[in-house]
Amino acid sequence: MKRNLILFAILAAAASLFISCASVPAEIDPDMNEEMFFKNAQEAMDQNYYNLALYYYEVYLVRYPENHHKTIGAEYERALIYYKMKEYDYSKALFELILDKYENSPFAVMYPERYKILSRKILDKIDEIQNPPKKSQEEKTSETE
Question: 8-25+33-130: what fold?
Fold first, then answer.
C-alpha cells in the first residue's frame, strides 16, 4: 500500500512538472543511462532549475526502480530540492519516507548510510524552521532596550 502511495506521489509530481515548467524536455532519450540522469539533474540543480532536476529524478525512479542503491539517492535529492524550494511540509514527508525505508525495507542493507544521516540533519533544520525556539522574557526585555 505504501509503495502504491509513493508511486502515485512520484507520478503526480512528474505530471505537475509537465504542466508547470516549460523547460522540461518533452521526452527523454530512451538510451539515456542511469548516470546521465544524475548528471543532468545535478547540472540543473547547479543552475537552480529545480523543476528540471526533479523531472530527471522522477523519470529515473520510474525507469530504474530496481537499482536500490541509487534510487535512495534520487529520493534523497528530490526531498532536498523541495527543501531548497521551501516546500518544507512535502520535503519533510519525503525525508521521513527515506528514514522509514532505512528502518523497514528489505533493501536497506544496500542503501548508503549518508542519506540516512543527511535526512536526519535536514529534518532537524526543518523542525527549527517550522518551530523556532520561543524567546525567554529576559531575551525579549534585552531586545527592547
Answer: 1.25.40
